Structure formats: C-alpha cells, structure tokens
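Final report, results section. Input specification for complex C-07:
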Amino acid sequence: MKEQKAIIEQFKTLYGNPTLKTIEALTGIQKTRFFRICHGMEMRLDEFLILKGLIEKKSKIKDHLDEVLDNCRQEMNNFQLKELEIILYRYLQKCIYINDLENSKEEEEVFSA
Amino acid sequence: MHKSLLAVERMVFDSLIKCEKSMHELTRDTSLSSSMLRNILNSLIVKGMIEYKKGIYGPTKMSLNELDKEYDLLEMSQGLARLKWRENDDESFLTLKKIYVDKDDELILKSMMASMDSFVRDIQLRQSQNPKSHKVGERKVIVLGMGQYSRLVDASLKTVS
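Structure output:
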C-alpha cells in the first residue's frame, strides 16, 4: 500500500497534479477507478505498470530538459539567460492558469453530478 | 517574480482601464471563467497593477511599459498565427508577405497603412467616449506592421520566443 501511494504521488508530481479527466486520458484508467485507488483501493498490476511506464517516460523528458538547461547555462551569457528565465516564467504562469481552469471545471462537473 | 503581464492578464487590465468593475461585471466583460479571473485578479494585485476596494477592482496605473506592449504584441501575433494556421479559424485573418517593394510602391503602401491606422484610431477615439458600449472580450485585435527583412531577422536573433 505504501508503494502504491508513493507511485501515485510520483505520477501526480511529475504530471503537474493532473485532473482526473487528464489522468483518464493519459492512463486509460477510469476517473472513478483512479479516485478510489487514490483513496485506498488496491491497484491492479496492469494499472501499476501503466503508471510506472508513464513515470519513466516523463522522467526521460525531464532528464532531456535538464540537459538542455545545462547547455543553456554553458552557451548563454547572463543577459540571454535572464531573457530565457522570463520566457520560461511566463510560460509557467500560463500553464498554472490553464491547469487551475481545468481543475475548477472538473470540480464543477463533480459538484453538478 | 516578473511583473510583465500575460495576454490574459492584459485583457483584464484593459477591461478595468475602461472602468472599475466588480467580479461579476468583469466576468461578463472578459468572458473569462470566474475561477481563472480570480487567479488573474490576485496576480494583478500582487504585481501592483490593480487594487480592490469594497468589492470593486480598479487600475492603479493607466498605462503599460514598453516591455509589456512588446509581450502583448508577441502573444497576440502568436495567438493569431495559431488560430489561423493550426486551428484553421475562418474568422481570423492573417497574412505574412516577404516581397521587394520599389520606392513608388513603398510610398503607396505606407500611405495605405497610415490611412488604415488613422481609421482604427478614429474608431478607438469614438469608443473611448462611451467605454461601456462594448465588451472587452469582443474587441478585434489588429496587427499592422512592416519592416526590412534583414533587420527583422537581426532583431529576431536577439529575442527569445
């Protein structure tokens, strides 16, 4: 159970706390099923493997991004790095707005159901 | 924290520059969802762009800096390109041409662009006299510009987008 909780947390963190709808689209695991798993129902092996596969996939993207950022640190001067930081920050802000919006839509769906 | 505005924040700011508003009026004027609007209003307050008094939001300043204008243009152009070329939106119009223009044609082109600019300014002036006549979310975005190819390429190398 401890491992199950850990893998779910890792998955959520790596995918930026996705909504249940997004999780369903990503994993193929039904929203209600995933909700129950998050609240203590035991996960099946196939579900565990799906999550593990997605975590590995995302980790690879993350590693690649880290590599690109390392290259940026080496190749760019301070001014260029500052510009990059601003662009990334602005994009991050947009993603936060969009994720919040999707989460609130989902909450509304749950409340109206 | 960077204080530059995102296009979505800019739209809320534009709405408040027209006139101060309650949350409900802002939702109607911008067509943004109330949950997104709440987050944007918080961000604008933190950035010192707006203030909140007795249920009403209002701007603390009436204009934006040059950097904000540059980001606004960039995001609007990117939005237009996305709508037109990726999402095949029929309501959006966008054209990009790279052509050699001789002196005579350049004069004609500049004069046509100046009259287009003046036409748009006239509309803007009329609307500023009656700010409640339209919703900010229903405004049309017009991008008009021209520059020398090599100079634009040079400038583009200095920008990250």
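Residues 78-112 of chain A form the longest helix (35 residues). Chain A touches chain B through 15 residues (CB under 8 Å). This concludes the modelling results for the funded period.
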